[in-house]
Amino acid sequence: xxxxxxxxxRGLHGSRPWRAHREVVDRQPVVGPIEPEHLxxxxxxxxxxxxxDQGDHVxxxxxxxxxxSRTLSVLPLLVDAPTRQAQIVAADKYDxxxxxxxxAAVVVPAPGPGPHQWAGAPSAALDVDGxxxxxxxxxxxxxxxxxxxxxxxxxxxxxxxGVVTRDRLGAAxxxxxxxxxxxxxxxxxxVSCATPNSLHWWIGVLEAxxxxxxxxxxxxxxxxxxxxxxxxxxxxxxxxxxRWQAWICCHPLDKPGEEDRMSTAxxxxxxxxxxxxxxxxxxGRPGTWDARGARLSSILPDGRACYDGRASQEENxxxxxxxxxxxxGNSTTPLLVQLDDSPVVDVRYLDILxxxxxxxxxxxxxxxxxxxxxxxTELIPPGHALDSP
Length: 389
Hints:
- By secondary structure, the protein is mostly beta strands.
- It folds into two domains: 2-89, no CATH class; 105-380, Glycosyl hydrolase domain, family 43 (Tachylectin-2, Chain A).
- Helix content is 4%, strand content 42%.
- The protein contains three helices and 24 strands.
- It has helices at residues 4-9, 56-59, 166-169, and strands at 2-3, 63-67, 71-80, 85-88, 105-108, 118-126, 132-140, 144-152, 159-165, 178-181, 187-194, 201-208, 219-223, 230-239, 244-252, 263-269, 275-282, 293-299, 305-310, 320-326, 336-338, 347-354, 360-367, 373-380.
- The strands form six sheets. Strands 1, 2, 3 and 4 form a four-stranded antiparallel β-sheet that branches.
- InterPro entries: Glyco_hydro_beta-prop_sf.
- This is Glycosyl hydrolase family 32 N-terminal domain-containing protein.
- It comes from Acrocarpospora macrocephala.
């Protein structure tokens, strides 16, 4: 839930959440605005419940934004085909910790107004003392690109403990980092770096005994990509005490002007430094909302995942979040299959941190009406129960 009195002062109302009314794409669920009169009474929202057929605009929605006088809530909807009635369903229908399930808090505001002013692309990990260590990317027209490392006792109030600039890494730009604590107690920060004067990206790693030491650690390249054929960035790294796993966003460079296309490849390692590739495990589907590509953003221990996708080149930086599940078959290359009826939430880079006492702390990058991006978090208790306003 978001306090609209606060958001109204920042200009939440009066501007589109994205371009060209993209709230309906091939019957896929998305976040989009609706008018209060479209909704009837419901106990959870001021106007909520069954939604009468308003033509294709409402009937094809399976997730919308419902507005009341004070709150903004992302709610999944189901459409009953025979009656063409849309009805609100519990957020835990999908049993997945999605934005809008808990109460949202802004942990890092956008660095400035307008496009390409971004705070987000988070990666979170738990320390032994129970605090959360968070790494994220900032893109600013004034300060350039940099990764921030922060610590938080409650998951919301952050104290910066390190900054890694693009100049420090010899990169033209930086993107999403991946933060991992090893079984030896050391910390690793995998960083996404753009090669200067090129469309190529590569991934390096910084390692230190404490998160506070990462910003000054020596950098080692671990995923080179290929300057002629493939850019690699935005890693999701997991270590289960036995093996290292990586899901890497790959951008093909073979067609000039088409480098925004993306897919997700899978790799494994014994030490997190030398990796073996196993091929592509998630890609976009022609004719759907994610046709231009699919970038895995987080994966749960049972293999279910969320990913960023978009339909076209014009939607670059306007990615939305969908769900995927493991495909049956070869376990060496764990293919993922998108859920056709999964909710598509208008956020990107969703990161999910399972908590020791069950439940989750999620972080994600949310776009504002002026196309700047802020970093938000939600605490999702066990059961993923939707909070009342």
